Amino acid sequence: MSAAAYFQSLNGLDLLGRLPAAIAQGLFWGVMALGVYITFRLLDVADLSVDGTFATGSAVTAMLILKGVNPWVAILVAFLAGLAAGAVTGLLHTKLGIPAILAGILTQYALYSINLAIMGFKANTAVNAKSTLVISGLSIPRSIVVLLIFVAALIAVLYWFFGTEVGSALRATGCNQQMAKAQGININSMKLLGLALSNAIVALAGGLSAQYSGFADVNSGRGSIVIGLAAVIIGETIGEAIFKKHLNFAGRLIFVVVGGIIYYIVYTIVLWLKLDSNMMKMFTAIIVAIFLAVPYLRGQSRSSFRRAGKNSASGEGK
Amino acid sequence: MLELKNITKTFNLGTINEKHALNGIDLTLNDGDFVTVIGGNGAGKSTMLNAIAGVWPVDSGSIIIDGTDVTGLPDFRRAPYIGRVFQDPMTGTAATMEIQENLALAARRGRRRGLTWGVTADEKEMYREKLKILDLGLEDRMTAKVGLLSGGQRQALTLLMATLRKPKILLLDEHTAALDPKTAEKVLNATETVVKKDNLTTLMVTHNMKDAIAHGNRLIMMNEGKVILDIKGEEKKHLTVENLLHQFELISGEEFANDKALLS
Hints:
The complex is a heterodimer of chains A (318) and B (264).
Chain A: H1 3-9, H2 12-42, H3 50-66, H4 71-94, H5 100-118, E1 124-126, H6 140-161, H7 165-175, H8 177-182, H9 187-213, E2 215-217, H10 224-243, H11 249-272, H12 280-302, H13 305-314
Antiparallel strand pairs in A: 1-2
Chain B: E1 2-11, E2 19-29, E3 34-39, H1 45-53, E4 60-65, E5 68-69, H2 75-78, E6 82-85, H3 99-107, H4 121-134, H5 151-164, E7 169-173, H6 181-198, E8 202-205, H7 209-214, E9 218-223, E10 226-232, H8 233-237, H9 241-252, H10 259-263
Parallel strand pairs in B: 3-8, 3-9, 6-7, 7-8
Antiparallel strand pairs in B: 1-2, 1-4, 4-5, 9-10
Helix pairs in contact in B: 3-5, 5-6
């Protein structure tokens, strides 16, 4: 196909038509990213269990809805399942001394079997519901409205929680463990709580995802940590660029979700450009790597041995 | 107020790095005692403070604070009794949290934390008043992140946090050592003020002999994990550096090995 023919084949209206779906997906991935934010930013732990708990949330929700359970109740149960799975990671880390990153990997690995078991040892399951789903890819505008309300409520709850005494203690634990202990905070309990809460929210997002797409897949959570990180980092970078130092905690949470939406808009554009969507994982990894590297490289540009060497050679500072 | 009975602690037991850090410490602090602690490098000064704070369990002996045996409790469960200021100004505060949030965390030291708001309006007023006493202008920056403060400001804030709820015992571990001389003096004066005001039972490790002599009502000297000298009352008031060094050499039979202490 020639370049001219390629560009002719791209239809701007078509892209516009796909945007609502991107926004809806971005919103429930934004929920997932809020979960990642709790561990990654507030607790200062890279928790890889989320790849498993996202699928757990999907599987639990799909199976419950198949059994005729109300879809709202189904995602509530998904939340609790995620809470339990996160607690397992927390216990492996705090009670058995396994490094957090490894504890997460172990939980995630075990969850693959558990998720299969939940779905009756089938790799995927369609969501067939008699009652109206919370969200659905078949009614995107309604889903967006529901998700916006849902996300607003979740952010409000998180904002409140992290402002409470317990929430402050959790943030202190993530910031400075020695200080936290000196203030009588049980840092192991805080880590456990943070990991459980984070995975509960991720599982909730998995439940929403299953309802939206109409099926649950045991592989649906693969790489979700990277998408979550991408949303967190993209959102924070944009938020800080706009609001500078005035970006408060609520603003940060909002921008994490915005980051999820932007990620899915970019994803949609990649598909629209007829690029291979299988390459999206690599693009995502590259984006996350770049954004994670920027603060480090910025520091390096201010002060590095290379620069010191150059200055010395050119006679500056003599 | 504080009783240490025959405390021992050995690090790296059975390895080539085996170190008998505490060799049977016996020490009793009365209510309101302000004790300065000096000693050579590796004498066990910081180790003793860490033992009291519960950073790790001791090998043998008892630690009793205000009649409660805390030997079996980890650090965060001893926190209700203890206020701590560390040598590194970064250690005592949470950098990514606001000044008032840090104070609010300290105000709840040893209390059950619930789901009520982390910093209340009444508290903020109280913190403003307390920060004014430090005279560092922090009362106008209560919502600033602690990471933006200088080392001296952070150390002064840590001191305020450690004493916000009156501790049974205040542990100061070379808390001015990382500061420039001028700031160190300010923090030391602030220390003197708060300790006097609340009549706090205090253990202050310092590498500065003059400071050790100038502050407190009692001075102990440590060597090889033991308290080798305990000077209080009138005798403490008439101490001089030379006098102290002489006594050290008499007791230990060696020269005082702490360059920092001799040079400052």
